[in-house]
Design goal:
Layout lengths: L13 E5 L3 H13 L3 E5 L2 H10 L4 E5 L1 E2 L2 E2 H9 L7 E5 L4 H9 L4 E4 L4 H15 L8 E4 L2 E4 L4 E4 L2 E3 L3 H11 L6 E2 H9 L9 H16 L6 E5 L3 E5 L1
Parallel strand pairs: 1-2, 1-3, 3-6, 6-7
Antiparallel strand pairs: 4-5, 8-9, 9-10, 10-11, 12-14, 13-14
Helix pairs in contact: 1-5, 2-3, 6-7, 6-8
Amino acid sequence: MEPDSPPPPATRPVVALVEDEPDLAEMATTYLTRDGFEVRPAADTRTGLRLVEAGGIDLVVLDLGLPDGNGLDLLRGLRARENPVPVIVVTGRGEEADRVVGLELGADDYLVKPYSQRELAARVRAVLRRSRPAPAAATAIRVGGLVVDTSAREVRRAGTPIALTPREYGLVEFLAAAPGQTFSREQLLDHVWGSSSRWQAATTVDEHVYRIRRKLVAAGVTEPRITTVRGFGYRLDS
């Protein structure tokens, strides 16, 4: 099967598309369906939440500007669930504050309108790839006081899990696999996000590192630490 060929219907990932602009929703649904996804549309926060609560959703594409409330409120609700699904937030070009808050609340990626449907499909594939469980043969990585369990996709300190979003976990795992090695923001976008600076700002990496650092400090982790290499990127030091 060619890489871009749609998978058999039984294996199609299910995307909840929470978007109130009919033309954009129709285009996105058509393109994602053609690209091998099953799309379940919702035009408001209430319907979007019902879709997720009904189960079977693999990823949510969430427009933050919705007619019946702030999409950030829906994002909070999705993140608070016992088994949260990956979320890509969508904002207008001038809504940088919403993008930052969305990432703070645990969104896995973001898109800025107007965006191409090809870019949307690429982002959906990348987020799903990063959020899938690692192969059973994978082993745990031990760095300083942390254990990165690649089978469970979980980071633990003294046996206690640290709550990370799928993207935050992916960043910690990637850095932990090569402690002491410095990676540029561009490299991290490529390996962890499956993206590049042509698609999204390198500050996305900075925002995720900031959130991870706060969570490690709150968990009492002193080593390892994510070190900033000024003007270049980051490394994990133990």
